[in-house]
Amino acid sequence: MDSAVEPGDIESLRAEITGEVFVPGDDGYDDLTDLIVHTGHPAVIIRARNNDDVARGIAFAVTHGLEISTRSGGHSNAGFSTNVGGMVLDLAHLNSIEVVDESGRLVRLGAGAKWAQVATALEPYGFAFTSGDTTSVAVGGLLVGGGVGWLVRKYGLAMDNLVAAEVVTADGLVLSASAEENPDLFWAIRGGGGNFGVVTSFTVVAQPVPRVFFGQISFAPDETAKVLRGWAAYMESAPEELTATAMCWPTFGQATPPLAIMVCYAGDDEAAARSAIDPIRKLGTVVDDQVRLMPYGDVLQPASDLPPGWRPYVRNRLTPALTGDLVTTVLTEQANLENLYVEIRSIGGALSQVPEDATAFIHRSTQAMIMGVLLGSPEGNEPLLPAYEAFWSALAPSMSGAYSGFLSNVLAADIDAVYPEQVYRRLAALKREYDPGNIFHLNVNVVPAGADQG
Predict the structure, then answer these.
(1) Neighbour-count burial for 404-425, b at 16+ CB within 10 Å, e otherwise
(2) Interval 243-278: pLDDT, tens
(3) What is the pLDDT of residue 2?
(4) Closest Cα partner for 356 from 306, 422, 408, 273?
(5) Confidence at residue 213, expressed as pLDDT on a 0 to 100 scale
(6) Which terminus of the chain has fewer Cβ atoms in its 10 Å neighbourhood, N or C?
(7) Are 298 and 120 in contact (CB under 8 A)?
(8) CA distance 11 to 76
(9) What is the DSSP-derived secondary structure letter of residue 145?
(10) pLDDT tens track for 304-347
């Protein structure tokens, strides 16, 4: 146990909260320490059951000088959902899903609810909204970061559907955040991540999307460049109901794999879906077509199991124009790294219709997100990092901004890309108000205005 925490302190904590408290050596502790690709050894883990538990946990961490990791689903690429020697505030028990107004499609979600649970609960109502890619991603981390999902071009980011939230702040206050109550905090938590407190519940407006046409279309490998350029051009004018992602798989020294384009048409009108998707099918030689009608929840996939020792290096950048020249640059640079997976998400649409200053995510002119994932172990990838940096340098002239959710090593340049200067200044001023001690710093961090950033 961390030397700053005595057994008596833990017993007092257990007596104060209704949730569970785990320390090293407890049954169940080892099951809660690690993430998908990151390992941790926190001094204490609290599985909170209500806002009071969260507030008491925060106070305990501050008193004992413990770093705080807030965990909703534990999918942080950067490992922020666990730590060594600190506290993990685990929100898994805060997983309620309640349709509070069916006619208005208002749904209240606990931060620990998993997206598979949300989709299942909303399906009988014919509701859905942009969510994470995998079944086990939870509501909390995705909503405060943005939420780039399969309905993004029709209904915007997940957070664009948010109308209210409950936030437990650094001083233990439980605040409501909405356009009417604490609107500055409401602005900040939509894109500003966990910098301003622990968001424990969200009220969202779900969308009438009972079923979607979803699946993968694969093309002959030798046609990748032609198909990808044609797809990029088509998505500029494609119906907003259609969201699509191109997946350029690494070769690992073997034959080039087929180009895969995942498509999601928001609706169950077969003729309209075919009209939207067929122009993609006609771009090249289709070797596999798995598109079919399904409930929205079925688009969510289990998180992939990685080989032992792997810890992918993940980075993304946003672009206002996915041009043919940019596509060529991506493919040319990817060829220099046989273990680099490249994903291009065509977004835009409804995302671009939200005013730039409405949320802390201001990259509203974005038309595509390019993600580069260096697969393998940290040791194996170390000598490849110069080529990985060259990949991003080649793309840099066409990029503008970044998304906070797909970053494994958060560098100063990443923070600058996520939060351009004018946004960072506003966030820093609010950080000084809501978290002047920067106790919530295990995130894409904003330092309080006036604080030492050294």
Answers:
(1) bbbbbebeeebbebbbeeebbe
(2) 999 999 999 989 999 999 999 999 999 999 999 999
(3) 45
(4) 422
(5) 98
(6) C
(7) no
(8) 30
(9) H
(10) 778 888 889 999 999 999 999 999 999 999 999 999 999 999 99
Cα-flanking dihedrals φ and ψ of residue 401, to 5°?
100, 175
Would you say how long the chain is, in residues? 454
Q: Which two tokens stand for residue 78?
A: 């950067």
Q: What is the DSSP string of 398-424?
A: G-----TTS-SS--HHHHHHHS-HHHH
pLDDT digits (tens, 9 = 90+) for 395-426: 999 999 999 989 999 999 999 999 999 999 99
Nearest alpha carbon to residue 385 among 350, 337, 320 = 337
CB 395 within 8 A of CB 329: yes
> DSSP secondary-structure letter at 14?
H
Separation of alpha carbons 305 and 74, rounded Å:
15
- 3-class DSSP state of 134: strand
Q: What is the mean pLDDT of the chain?
A: 95
How far, CA to CA in Å, does 200 sit from each of 8, 54, 277?
Answer: 28, 9, 38
Contacts of 147 (CB under 8 A, 6+ apart): 130, 131, 132, 157, 158, 159, 405
* Residue tagged 């939060």 (tokens): 419
Tokens of 431: 């950080």
Residue 265 phi/psi, 5-degree rounding, is -105, 120
Q: Which amino acid is at 309?
A: G
What is the rounded CA–CA span in Å between residue 172 and residue 39?
28
Could you tell me the two tokens for 67?
């770093």
| Residues 360/187, Cβ–Cβ less than 8 Å | yes
425 Cβ contact list (under 8 Å, min separation 6)? 449
The amino acid at 264? C
- Cα–Cα distance, 356 to 362 (Å, whole number): 5
Confidence of residue 288 (pLDDT cuts 50, 70, 90): very high
The mean pLDDT of 1-20, rounded to a whole number, is 86
Q: Given a cut of 50, is residue 1 above it in pLDDT? A: no
CA 243/CA 229 separation, integer angstroms = 16
pLDDT tier at 287, thresholds 50, 70, 90: very high
State the Cα–Cα distance between residues 365 and 178, nearest whole angstrom. Answer: 24
Closest by Cα among 234, 231, 219 to 327: 231
> Which tokens sit at 291?
């598109």
State the pTM of this model.
Answer: 0.95
